[in-house]
Amino acid sequence: WTKNGVELSATRKNASNMEYRINKPRAEDSGEYHCVYHFVSAPKANATIEVKAAPDITGHKRSENKNEGQDATMYCKSVGYPHPDWIWRKKENGMPMDIVNTSGRFFIINKENYTELNIVNLQITEDPGEYECNATWPHSGLSWEFWLKLSSLW
């Protein structure tokens, strides 16, 4: 048996039937499980089972205090399966707007259950405010909000 592509220890057997049991499943048990089997006179085959878990997200912190010219990093993590699609937004006049890297100072890293927003060379006139990471699943969505506060060096 494998979970998300990694073999589960003590599940390799030479038998005509296989069973893998999860007693009292929790969110960390969610993922994609494969039972891989070989027949002497047939090609390799497998069966796939998806174990889904309710989505939730958490962030690094709720606010960040930085000085002008410094860099800022904010991140969010998700639990549950399947993994979400991520998007970062900044509130402009009370409306969340997708972050577009027109200045070349915003860098977004998205992985399966993790997203990170890096802002380099913070600008006091442009960057303070409310940011949010937004996680979207097929039937729901959640967001985590951050406040970025800047102090002027002058």
From TrEMBL:
Which UniProt key words apply to this protein?
A: Cell membrane, Disulfide bond, Glycoprotein, Immunoglobulin domain, Membrane
Outline the extent of the Ig-like domain: 1-52, 55-143
Q: Which GO terms describe its cellular component?
A: plasma membrane
The primary site where this protein sits is membrane
Its membrane topology, per UniProt?
Answer: Single-pass type I membrane protein
Q: Which Pfam families match?
A: Ig_3 (PF13927)
Highest taxon of the source?
Eukaryota
Q: Give the subcellular location.
A: Cell membrane
Q: What is this protein called?
A: Homo sapiens clone 23742
Q: Which organism is it from?
A: Homo sapiens
Phylogenetic placement of the source organism: Eukaryota, Metazoa, Chordata, Craniata, Vertebrata
